[in-house]
């Protein structure tokens, strides 16, 4: 073992975690949430739906806790969740926050929190094995 690893505490998920999205859309609806994004991500989302960033900001963005967030509908569904299909209308350009679920700090905090989130996400604990390096890249 390299000297730098001696005594280093390993995360509980050091051997990787299984996850494959089943596309059910549950994480995109049902409860109030915040979806943050960068300027570059906003440009990509606007490009995907064919409008300029000013139009995008006017139609699809509001402020939550002092930050820009994608809007929600009155029932808290993400504004980009396509009603009958549970599909994301900007899937190819969805921001990092959406791409990195469920590898979020609050989910990975403990095995308990992972299990808690997995009660509402049918893709967790099954399917593709994601290794430590990949998970760490989502966290950085
Ligand atoms: S709840 Fe889980 S399985 Fe369903 S869309 Fe979200 S990430 Fe995918």
Describe this protein's structure.
With 140 residues, this protein is α+β, with helices and mostly antiparallel strands. The chain has one domain (17-139). It has six helices and six strands; from the N terminus they run E-H-H-E-E-E-E-H-H-H-E-H. The chain has helices at 39-49, 53-60, 96-99, 105-108, 111-118, 132-139, and strands at 17-19, 61-64, 67-70, 81-82, 87-88, 124-130. The protein has a two-stranded antiparallel sheet with strand order 1-6. Strand 4 (81-82) and strand 5 form a beta hairpin. It is globular. The two termini are 25 Å apart. It binds iron/sulfur cluster. The site of iron/sulfur cluster has 11 residues, from loops.
Summarize this structure briefly.
This protein has one domain (17-139). The protein is built from six helices and six strands; from the N terminus they run βααββββαααβα. The chain has helices at 39-49, 53-60, 96-99, 105-108, 111-118, 132-139; strands spanning 17-19, 61-64, 67-70, 81-82, 87-88, 124-130.
The largest beta-sheet arranges its strands as 1-6
Bound molecules: iron/sulfur cluster
| Strand and helix order | EHHEEEEHHHEH
Structural class determined from secondary elements: alpha+beta
DSSP strand count: 6
How many discrete domains?
A: 1
Radius of gyration, in angstroms, nearest whole number: 17 Å
Number of helices: 6
Percent of residues in helices comes to 25-40%
Strand percentage lies at 15-25%
Mean pLDDT: 92
